[in-house]
Specification:
The complex is a heterodimer of chains A (113) and B (113). Helices cover 0% and strands 51% of the residues of chain A. Chain A is mainly beta and 113 residues long. In chain A, the strands form two sheets. In chain A, strands 2, 4, 5, 6, 9, 10 and 11 form a seven-stranded mixed beta sheet that branches. In chain B, the strands form three sheets. In chain B, strands 2, 5, 6, 10, 11 and 12 form a six-stranded mixed beta sheet that branches. A four-stranded antiparallel beta sheet of chain B has the order 3-9-8-7, with no helix packed on it. A two-stranded antiparallel ribbon of chain B has the order 1-4. The chains are: A mainly beta (113), B mainly beta (113).
Chain lengths: 113, 113
């Protein structure tokens, strides 16, 4: 049971570099989302998608891009990394008709120097 | 937008003692309420959820929570804490048709032997 898989688990970037955090789920969930977790801030929603070709912004979308070309994959792109984007990123998914349980990946720790 | 407050950043209890973690929410409509647990280096796992009906809900690992609309609260309880319960706990609020689930800042639980 793979569930939600995130790669990479750890990444160090220099300011201005770009990278993509990958997220894949094998549960046929329509809804997928990206959160960032910072100390004392809890989890904050960056972007989400309710199906292939449909994405929308969450609470903290600036500096991040997403796309959803398939049901399974929802990559998060940082076009020009900044130290403020140092964080732990979580991908989560659920069935669209279930406003309930989110299934989370194990997280990706990103450090921007 | 909805919001969640977890007043306690860190709680320490002795093994075998009872536990109550506080959660207050702000939301104009009927909320969906959740408690998640995060073990170190892991993603989040759902403990329990409230959508409607009985205001006392049971979850996994012996946890329960009570929804009190008059107090806008959804406190998590456990009668006897085990050392394996040491983790970070997050309260979250969502709603039907709302794709923006908001999380509290989390409460870190330490269990003393």
């Amino acid at each position: 049971n793979a569930g939600v898989t995130q790669t990479p688990k750890f990444q160090v970037l220099k300011t201005g570099q770009s990278m993509t955090l990958q997220c894949a789920q094998d549960m046929n969930h329509e809804y997928m989302s990206w959160y960032r977790q910072d100390p004392g801030m809890g989890l904050r929603l960056i972007h989400y998608s309710v199906g292939a070709g449909i994405t929308d912004q969450g609470e903290v979308p600036n500096g991040y891009n997403v796309s959803r070309s398939t049901t399974e994959d929802f990559p998060l792109r940082l076009l020009s990394a900044a130290p403020s984007q140092t964080s732990v990123y979580f991908c989560a998914s659920r069935l669209i008709l279930n406003t309930g349980e989110l299934f989370f990946g194990e997280g990706s720790r990103l450090t921007v120097l | 937008a909805q919001s969640v407050t977890q007043p306690d950043i860190h709680i320490t209890v002795s093994e075998g003692a009872s536990l109550e973690l506080r959660c207050n929410y702000s939301y104009g409509a009927t909320p969906y309420l959740f408690w998640y647990v995060q073990s170190p280096g892991q993603g989040l796992q759902l403990l329990l959820k409230y959508f409607s009906g009985d205001t006392l809900v049971q979850g996994i690992k012996g946890f329960e929570a009570e929804f009190k609309r008059s107090q806008s609260s959804f406190n998590l309880r456990k009668p006897s804490v085990h050392w394996s319960d040491a983790a970070e706990y997050f309260c979250a609020v969502g709603a039907a048709g709302n794709n923006d689930m908001r999380f509290g800042a989390g409460t870190r639980l330490t269990v003393k032997p």
